[in-house]
Amino acid sequence: MAENLGFLAGCGMLALIGTLVVSFLRQMGWLGRDTALLLGRSAAMTCAAGLLYFLLALLSFLAAYGTIDGQVNLSMLFRGPGMSRMISALYHPETAPLDSMAFAWLSFLAGSVLFGQYEFCGICLAWCMTAASLFLVQKRLRVLAEDKTARDMAFLLLCLPGGVFFMLPGWAPILLLVCAVVFDVLGKRLHSWKARFSPVAYGWIITVCAVLSAAVTIAAAEGRIG
């Protein structure tokens, strides 16, 4: 229990540090109000989605085994072969697959600074990459369309089937960030549009994606995929 509380305390500490950094940049005039709010919204959406995915994996574990002995960790919640290899690579980055080697080394270096908290740093790095991706996507979409469209599309990204892997160490958050950077750069050549999604159609899309995403998350927690 103490280790789990320590993990939550670490998350709170990082959130506080991030808030203080943004506040400092705002006071120095290096960060606009809209940009700061967009950063905060992207981080909040990522944290909310990440916590929901992890909670669903935890509920799946409890449904299968009934109790938890010891600390809740990645290897307990997500038992797929790919995730097992990635968790091992967080401790031994030289064994990481090529598509995840950069991620493994960054997590390893951060974990070495934070007294061996390699899994914690891996989760934080994945969430930071996902939050940065949402920020870039929304920033560009706010120019091309409107804020509501940007917010809806960012939320849809988190609900996509397999969206849980954006919250986990590995190649998925890297791919999402690369796609977001490419979209932000190439989006400068796109013309703005005024088309809006039908609220009913968007609601159905979100519902279907959420159900499929929950199924993928449970499958990853049971070790069938990932």
Largest sheet: none
Give the structural class: mainly alpha
Termini separation: 27 Å
**Oligomeric grouping of the chains:** single chain
Number of strands: 0
The dominant shape is globular
User: Into which percent range does the helicity of residues fall?
Assistant: over 70%
**Which spans of ≥5 residues are poorly predicted at pLDDT below 50?**
1-5
Instruction: Write down the secondary-structure element order.
Output: HHHHHHHHH
Radius of gyration: 18 Å
Mean pLDDT: 85
How much strand content do the residues show? under 5%
Number of helices: 9
Structural account:
The chain has 226 residues and is mostly helical. Helix content is 73%, strand content 0%. The chain contains nine helices and no strands. It starts with a helix and ends in a 5-residue tail after the last helix.
Supply the key terms.
226 residues, mainly alpha, 73% helix, disordered N terminus
Q: Layout of SSEs?
A:
Elements: H1 2-27, H2 33-65, H3 74-77, H4 81-91, H5 101-113, H6 118-144, H7 147-159, H8 171-186, H9 199-221
Helix pairs in contact: 2-6, 2-7, 2-9, 4-5, 5-6, 6-7, 6-8
Brief overview, please?
The protein is an all-alpha fold.
